[in-house]
Specification:
The longest helix has 38 residues, at 321-358. Helix content is 45%, strand content 20%. By secondary structure, the protein is of the alpha+beta class. Helix 10 runs parallel beside helix 22 and helix 12 crosses helix 13 (368-393).
């Protein structure tokens, strides 16, 4: 019987080539979209899942309770990892991990740029970044060690084994011994780096990293096998408060792999993250398949009159309804099978472009799991698409059909119209959703942030520039195409440095307020284009302004100061500062957040980034001149810079990809 049904299906396909091609295009496009979304969703769900101890690997996080909200952060005190290992028996390993920085690695006349972190000695016992040279326990044990990626080791020494034990220079200053080489990092890791340095080295150099009252680095830990994470959470929640009486922190564990998909918190409650995009595209894939299936149903039922006599004759000679249903479902499954083969080919063709859009390295690996999943989708699609036509066509009365008296009932008419309406409703929904996402992204890109982010670049003032920063900035200002220059201990993107250590007259001692701390040099506000509301900027004309401070409007409002100019505040019970100005609020965080209180504090020694304003239309010339000047001060260093607008856009990279992908998938759905 199966052979007979298969033969009939092929015969009907050959007789109805037009309908077959339309169904083939519709179903193959729908299946291709579903498959490529399935690959993307599967890749997203696998991020950070490759670590051997993934089921007991956690990141320590903080709920910080402030006057206006609860802020959840990954920043923790520098001593936390070591203290947890020593005092909490359930903690098997723990390590501190700082923020990424760019460095120049030098070997004789070779100079290469590298991105790296300072990491605790347990790092490689926590995370499964494979060491191909060196020992996991000792790679970061000595403060003058460095661990390189295979790529950087080969670039400097030709091979990973040749690099072991050799000495290289970091930023032309510190000689370091290569104690390990790790395999280039998997695309499924959210943590990417070229090198690692011992955290203990940085902790010795930075006093604040030894304080329980300061936050900055992240802390990662594994629990001992069989440990109850809920019980450990209860045990550690006041761990920081017990060591710092002024702390407002509740410590808790978040599964390390969850931080990628569930990274957003609001008022101390988990509020989603990238998982929302996973759900969104899963829904889009289902919608596209439903639209394709409805298209198949409508085309099949529209051809009912052509096949009515076929059904009548077959029923007259003894074919029962079960056989006819099997025949029509067989045709549907055969067409869906052809569509599935074409869909796999389309995915293979378009996957490289899809990877460019999504910044991923997804490959079409025909694993047993993927094949089983795709076959299941194909089977369900074929049965769903062929179900209504099979039931409809097999229900014809042979006598009525052979007499030519076939009439479409009102119920059948409404069923077909209902399918069309539902199909177009889904299409309209996708069009509207895509339009909303697109306009939202356009709004974000064109939003006036309160400072001029265009043609504003910044880079680290390291090497000799750190010692001769004033001279460098003055020379930079004279370069063609440079409108202004200054320095800043910030990037203007996100929360870089903050404190609650401010007191002022009338402050409620029971309320803790977090202020963003932006350390600046002269001319910074003019360089970035922030507008003064009242008072003045820092100026050399008034002598030293290091005892002065400037707030934004949000800070003045939360402090409750009606006439702030001339009033004094205390910073960390150490500095007595006079308010000389108030700037208009500007967005230094994502637009997902409200403008938070901040202050500018004149502290040139702590303003480590050089900020440069470039004249519009002279970008290439200005950057070339700036690079030459940089290399004059730091010969052999890698000149790495960022544009403020590019870094701002990176905050919305996920939204931009969603917008672009949504347009493509909506187009396929409409097709």
């Amino acid at each position: 019987m199966f052979r007979h049904i298969f033969t009939l299906a092929l015969r009907n396909i050959s007789r109805q080539k037009g309908s077959f091609l339309i169904n083939l295009i519709g179903l193959s496009t729908g299946l291709a979209c579903a498959l490529i979304i399935f690959l993307w969703v599967n890749d997203e769900l696998q991020v950070d899942k490759f670590h051997a101890k993934e089921d007991r690997l956690y990141q320590l996080m903080e709920h910080q309770d402030y006057a206006d909200a609860v802020m959840t952060t990954t920043s923790t005190p520098g001593p936390l990892a070591q203290a947890l290992k020593e005092e909490i028996p359930e903690i098997e390993h723990a390590a501190t991990l700082t923020w990424p920085n760019r460095y120049t690695l030098s070997l004789e006349d070779k100079n290469i740029g590298a991105t790296g972190y300072y990491a605790g000695s347990d790092f490689f016992q926590l995370l499964s970044f494979s060491l191909i040279e060196g020992q996991v326990e000792h790679a970061l044990a000595e403060i003058n060690n460095i661990v390189l990626s295979r790529e950087k080791a080969e670039a400097l020494f030709g091979s990973a084994p040749a690099a072991m034990g050799e000495t290289i220079e970091l930023d032309h200053e510190e000689p370091l011994t290569i104690a390990g080489v790790f395999e280039d990092i998997s695309a499924q890791s959210s943590l990417r780096f070229d090198m690692l340095l011992p955290f203990e080295k940085m902790q010795q150099q930075q006093e604040w990293l030894r304080s329980w009252g300061s936050n900055g680095p992240r802390t990662i830990a594994t629990l001992a096998p069989g440990t109850d994470a809920i019980a450990v959470n209860e045990k550690i929640k006041d761990f920081i408060k017990d060591r710092n009486e002024q702390s407002n922190v509740t410590l808790f564990l978040q599964p390390y792999a969850d931080r990628y998909l569930y990274g957003r918190y609001k008022d101390g409650i988990q509020a989603g993250g990238r998982i929302e995009y996973v759900r969104l595209f899963s829904i889009i894939a289902i919608f596209i398949l439903i639209i394709a299936c409805i298209n198949f149903m409508n085309l099949s039922t529209a051809r009912a009159t052509r096949r009515a006599k076929e059904v009548g004759v077959k029923k007259t000679v003894g074919a029962d309804r079960k056989f006819l249903i099997s025949q029509f479902l067989g045709e549907s499954l055969l067409i869906t099978g052809f569509s599935a083969l074409l869909a796999v080919f389309l995915v293979w063709v378009f996957l490289p472009n899809f990877n460019l859009i999504t910044d991923k390295e997804i490959a079409l690996h025909l694993s047993p799991e993927m094949i089983a999943g795709f076959l299941a989708i194909t089977l369900i699609t074929g049965l769903l698409a062929g179900s209504y036509p099979a039931l409809y066509l097999s229900s014809f009365d042979p006598g009525t059909v052979l007499k030519g008296e076939l009439r479409t009932s009102l119920g059948e008419l409404w069923a077909r119209r209902g399918l069309v309406i539902f199909q177009f409703s889904l299409s309209v929904f996708l069009i509207v959703a895509v339009s909303v996402v697109y306009r939202q992204v356009q709004f974000v890109q064109n939003k006036n942030l309160g400072y001029e982010k265009d043609n504003l670049l910044f880079f680290a003032g390291n090497g000799r520039i750190e010692e001769q920063k004033d001279a460098f900035i003055n020379e930079a200002k004279r370069l063609p195409g440079i409108a202004n220059a200054s320095s800043i201990g910030h990037t203007l993107i996100g929360r870089n440095n903050n404190t609650s250590g401010l007191t002022w007259e009338g402050k409620d001692p029971d309320k803790i307020t977090l202020f963003e701390n932006i350390r600046t040099d002269y001319d910074l506000l003019e360089t970035i284009g922030v507008e003064m509301v009242s008072g003045r900027d820092f100026s050399r004309e008034f002598g030293s302004d290091t005892s002065k401070i400037i707030f934004n409007e949000a800070a003045i409002k939360i402090m409750g100061l009606e006439d702030p100019i001339g009033q004094r505040i205390r910073l960390w019970d150490e500095y007595d500062l006079e308010i000389i100005g108030v700037v208009k609020d500007f967005h230094f965080q994502s637009l997902h957040s409200e403008v938070n209180p901040l202050f500018f504090w004149l502290s040139p020694k702590n303003a480590w980034n050089i900020m440069v304003r470039i004249e519009a239309g002279q970008e290439a010339e200005a950057i070339a001149s700036l690079k030459d000047l940089y290399n004059t001060y730091n010969p052999g260093f890698s000149f790495d810079y960022d544009f403020a607008d590019d870094q701002y856009a990176l905050q919305y990279a996920a939204e931009q990809r969603v917008s672009k992908l949504s347009r493509y998938f909506a187009g396929f759905a409409i097709l």
